[in-house]
Each structure stands twice: as C-alpha cells, then as structure tokens.
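Minutes, project huddle
Topic: does the predicted pose make sense with zinc ion bound?
PN asked that the exact inputs be recorded in the minutes so nobody has to dig through chat later. Recorded below.
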Amino acid sequence: MPSSVPVPKAELHLHIEGTLEPELAFALAARNGVTLSHDDELALRHAYAFEDLQSFLNLYYELMAVLRTERDFEELAGAYLERAAAQGVRHAEIFFDPQAHTARGVPFATVVHGLHRALESARERYGMSSRLIMCFLRDQPAESALATLAEAEPFLGLITGVGLDSAEVGNPPAKFREVYEKAAALGLRRVAHAGEEGPPQYVTEALDVLGVERIDHGLRAFEDAGLTARLVREGVPLTLCPLSNVRLRTVDTLAEHPLRAMLAAGLKCTVNSDDPSYFGGYVEDNFRAVRETLGLGPEELRTLARNSFEAAFLDDEEELRARYLAEVEAHDFG
Ligand code: HPA
Ligand code: ZN
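Predicted holo structure (tokens), as shared on screen:
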C-alpha cells in the first residue's frame, strides 16, 4: 500500500489567481461590491467545463476582478498556502499576473504586499519557503510587459523571477525578447509557459531567445525527438500539470498522459497543480492521480519529488535545498 503521508515536494507551477475557490470569490465579491455573472457557487462550479485554454482564461480573468485590496491578496494566498502545506509542499514558487490587476486599477504594490504578507506568515506557521514569479500576459503587447517590468522595479527585492502565461498560440516567446533581456539584466530568473497548446518550436524559442531556465508545461516538446534529446542533455526542468492538461483538453484522458514515457526518456519532469481551484485538485491530488492512473512506482514518484527541489530557485538557500532533498530520500514512497 502506498503511504498516505503526502509526498514532500516543491510546487513550481502555480498561478495564485487560479487558487481562487468559488466560496472565497463570492465572499470577496460581497465584501467589495462586485457582481459576478454566476448566481452562486454551484452555478460557478458548473462553468468549470472547459473546451481549451482560452475558455478557461475567460472565466479566470472574470473571477479575479473580486480581488481588490491587499487583504484580499493576502487571504487568497493564505488559503492556498494552508492547503499546500497540508499537501506536502515544503517550498512554493508562485506565479502572479500583475497586468490583470493593474489594468483594473489595482496598484502593483497592493498585489505584491498582500501576497508577500501571506508568504511570510506561511514561513512562520508551516516552515514553508517560497518565491514570487511575476508573469507577463503574452496576449498583451510587448510594450505592456516592458511597462510592467518598469513598474515592478521598486519591488524586485520581493520578486525572484519572470514568467510568461495566458493565451499561447499566436503569441510566440520571441515577442518578449526585449523584456526578458531587461529582466535578466536586473538579476531576475526566467521561466516561460511553452508547449502547452503551442508547438515544440515555442519551447526551443523560449530557451534560445528568452534564455529560460525551466519550461512551464513543455508537454508538446515530447512530440519532437530532437528537442526531447536536447532537454534531456541540458537537464531543463519541465513543470508539468497533469490534471490541468485533462481539464483544458491538451490530453484526452489522464491515462493517455505522456508523463511516464517522458520520465523514462530522461526528461526532468515535475508535477504541479497550475490552477487548482479550476482543474480539480491541488498538487498532492495531481501526484495521487498520476500514481493511480499511470501506475507510477515508488522510484518514479521519488524522482518527481527530487526533481522539484533540484529545479527550485533555492540557490541562495542551498542548505534548505539539501534538507528538503534529504527528506525526499527518507520518505516512504510505498
Ligand atoms: N496556461 C496559460 N496561462 C495561464 C494558465 C495556464 O494554464 N493559468 C493561468 N494563466
Ligand atoms: Zn500555468
């Protein structure tokens, strides 16, 4: 019997706005006088039947309009961190979408300070370490990303890196060459979503043009044998999100998810939750689903957990990484 103790892990692909549960969305809507287009929580949950990435993003952007104050962002992140701690997360690298808030008139400082307060509190309460990664919306103009990076400058002490998310197809990584160059010059780490719905070529471009250190998703890279060989050779981590792929119909069923074959090919895979409120589970739920449906064995699960800490941006806290990795080696994977 596999152990019921959650796998000790780092979560590296998590959009904080995608952790907004319907109950909190309605509570914040009431508090802030925002009207939602769904009558109640049940009606909202019924809307969680997505056709593709865009149909999800439409609801994701609509609902996050309830987030207005520093307290709202703190409560949002606090709720996620409590769940994550219960699901074995020792270290969380959290994406946020500043443009989706500043475009609504919410100041950058409000977002960052609210999130940061929750992260500080999670370090005290659960001993959880964390990082913030600000994502640029790739369906917005490159100039908007540049303006957002400029707006972030006073807060760079609280932000570890930059990412790229939102609608992928038609918005290739090269569109953001300049802002990634500037981010690198400011000492920020770089990741990008690529190969979720977009072609393998976008993964190559993210590596070569944007200089990213990890690929978020990268699922479709596996369609290209040459690219797969390169990712293996260079040890590029992929932050896969299996339940997200099923919900957004990137794969037809979880049973057909290539995770197991990707691990066997030597890719540095990690398992993450993406937008857990919308996709049917938090990160341990993703681990449990792939263990049960794909039949992953103890050593495959250990590799996923080990990869998560090896791929984490913990270079300034190597003793912490070593402690987490020792915990993975000591864990009973069943
Ligand atoms: N893909 C791209 N952009 C996103 C996602 C996602 O799954 N979630 C939030 N923004
Ligand atoms: Zn994502």
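Observations noted during the meeting:
- The mean pLDDT is 98.
- The two ends are 6 Å apart (CA to CA).
No decisions taken; revisit at the next huddle.
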